[in-house]
Amino acid sequence: MPTFAENSNSMKIANIDLGPRPVLLAPMEDVTDPAFRLMCKQFGADMVYTEFVSADALIRSVSKTEQKLNISDAERPVAIQIYGRDVDTMVQAAKIVEQARPDIIDLNFGCPVKRVAGKGAGAGMLQNIPLMLDITRSVVNAVKTPVTVKTRLGWDANSKIIVTLAEQLQDCGIQALTIHGRTRAQMYTGEADWTLIGETKQNPRIHIPIIGNGDITTPQRAKECFDRYGVDAIMIGRASFGRPWIFKEVKHYLETGEELPPLSAEWRLNVLRQEVIDSVNLLDERRGILHVRRHLAASPLFKGIPNFRETRIRMLRAETQAELFQIFEEIEPMLIY
Description:
By secondary structure, the chain is of the alpha/beta class. Helix content is 42%, strand content 13%. The strands form two sheets. The chain has an eight-stranded parallel beta barrel with strand order 3-4-5-6-7-8-9-10, surrounded by seven helices. The protein has a two-stranded antiparallel ribbon with strand order 1-2. The model has no long low-confidence stretch (mean pLDDT 95).
């Protein structure tokens, strides 16, 4: 496959300028709340996405869902992502979302979890392409905000339809397409296949930006995805759990070709402390700590500490900020610098 010359041109979605080789924070349920988005932004994420928002719940005015529309100017450009399974509901939801003034409205046709895809929404739409296109076209026509789509390669290994689907979605008027390099059947297992993402990007009929997503866990891999597949932007998801500084590492490598000098364990632990504080401030102590546990459980900072299992269990059972920070203090001398 050809290697693509480094592109110094800015990447734009509609009139939103994201600069050259932008790195985006993926929308993730129970992860990309306002506090985490802002933190990733401060570390260099060029655009952030909300947790996904149920169109059904939004038009029923479910308050927990409405809270997901809270965005701040400090995190711009920011996209609000919605999912649903019928045209009218998605159009109504998109109009409600537009009132929150996001920079972009993103349509989720990629979520593989059973409670979403099993009901025909998210990646479930990959089994009903006419409806997916009808929803997309109708939402684009109903709002003035730029509309984008996030989806997968196809429903399963026998229906990797993304190259054709990308053209069809582009014809509906979307301004950019994000492709996760797996099928719905794969969920999050196996390796992301970037070859079809690259093929979609190289299709001469495609003129909207193509954003690649899946298994970008290192700065080197981020650069390789730009160089080998020619994508306009990359999106980082699970690799940011407990490691929001990955954006700092990736941006530095893309800009200089060199690895960022190692961030001290003390600095990284302080970032996690701040993540806990932000989460508690955003929600309350009990819910904030529950929310941040996923990040602590996944953080690479604690890998390599000998006999860590019991401490890890205590950390993930802690119910107060004071208790959690006491465990952090015990851990600090053991961290690998």
